[in-house]
Fold this sequence. Notes:
This protein has 417 residues and is an alpha/beta fold.
Amino acid sequence: MKPGKYNRRKFLGSISAGSAGGLLINTIAPFSSVNAQTKSLPFDQESNSDYFFAPGLTYLNTGTLGPCRRETIQESKNAWEELESLPVKFYGKWGAESLAERTRTIAARFLGCNMDEILITTSTTNGMNAIAQGLRLKAGDRILTTDQEHGGGLLCWEYFARYYGVTIDTISIPPGENNAASILNRINEGIRNGTRLISISHIFSSTGLRMPIAEISSLARSKGILCIVDGAQAVGAVKVNLKESGCHAYATSGHKWLMGPKGTGLLYLSKDVQDIIRPMQFEESYNTYNNSNGVVNLACILGLGKAIEYIESIGIARIEEHNLSLRNRLYERLTHMTNLTIMSPASGPLASPMLACRIPETIDRTLFVRMLLDKYKISIRPTHKQWFNGIRFSMHIFNTEKEVDFAADILHKELGK
Ligand SMILES: Cc1ncc(COP(=O)(O)O)c(C=O)c1O
């Protein structure tokens, strides 16, 4: 079949025929055994019944939002019910204070830092905003970042550029880049008088490129500036050790690769910057419940702790290996296609468990992705238009070789060899 068949007009017809009231998820019906879940190595104990996936769904979209396991939700539900037995238990001294700190302890252990360097947030964006606001930037300060940042890690700086006269300097890391030394050189050249910090993603949302954050942090430290990392796409997907990375601050989400409840996140502030970065909501203390932060969603925060413990029980090194092997398999299957160009690095140190591909301009990427869900029950992500007209696959612990092959077969079928 030819590309172009998903042009907007033709495709809208097929969507309205297939979707109930625009609620795409309603169209997921029990599906054939074509992608039946036989779990390939190494997670024999993993089973689709551990999740709430709709029958037959092939979920290759953790980079957008990860699934919660049943036991994670159960943990949150139990906690929520218990807390509601005396609603004031959500409130500081009645219990909230100490309960939420359990999740901080687990997160610190998992991320290789101290508990008093970890804060609970609601998302990566929330953590990045806290960092930016806590820095008290002023006119003349400069921020160095890249042209591949997600809005969740960029808008906080743009806010200070718009209202406080801060300048943003942007280096380009075009799709196809696969050279860490060259990236480092460009960052080095981008540092100017007045640069206060480098703000970068650990793994780009756009291309899945994994940035050499240890080297960038070390460069930043050698110049006396801060290294701030947006780790939305890294924690739970690949091994992250915050102390080893050397960065000053790191924000991540609970609801992506950690498979925690939606609306949870983690923020790391290294000891040596805690006087420099002072987020308003943690001014009173770093406790999750404190008078400058207010009441939090304790049930979900406890679920996040449970989700991290699950990742720990499997081992993040094994998870990373599994995720990368699926990603590399997909890379191999798609690499020779004429109507699709892989925009992610080849396998190697800059690769991550996400694979992004450009598709022809004649195809509306959003409609194409909806078609894949409607017709084949495959969930993937259309890339943001400002980067390229493309699609992105995320491979995580619950995915199998069979699912990756299924996705590759479908792309061959829909886009042509
Ligand atoms: C690199 C990056 N940063 C930030 C975000 C925003 O994450 P959250 O919704 O948890 O704030 C995303 C989401 O996809 C992302 O990919």
